[in-house]
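Aim 2 progress update. The chain analyzed this quarter is reproduced below.
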Amino acid sequence: MSEKNGGAPAKPDVEALRAEIKQTRADLGETVQALAAKADVKARAKDQVEQTKQRVKAQAAEATSRVREAAVHAGGRVRAAAGQAADRTGQEAEQATEKVQVEPVDGTDVVVNGRRLPVPLIVAGVAALVGIILVVRGSRR
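Predicted structure tokens:
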């Protein structure tokens, strides 16, 4: 008789039982290993640290690349602006020399556009201007 007919279930053969036991043991071993891995906090922490290191290294490399690109771009813009400024300065200097008529009178005075200016005062003004420019440039660095 079979189970369907209400009789006793058929007895499985010994080999099938042994195979089932072997499979159950293998599954149980895998489960125990998985639980042990989860319980091993030190190993999990090391893995997490390693993953974080790799992620930070990748982000640093990407940021470095972006900064280099920005620096190259900014350098090009600065060069262009410096060239334009130099051109403008040269043009303005030419215009200024055309407008100003300097006539030396003696060793201590200069006549500029009809006005008498003492040479030591002009030298002091130029020295002050150069000093101010150097201080401003030094503070930008």
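Helices lie at 14-39, 41-99, 119-140. Residues 33 and 39 are 10 Å apart (CA to CA). These observations will guide the mutagenesis experiments scheduled for the next reporting period.
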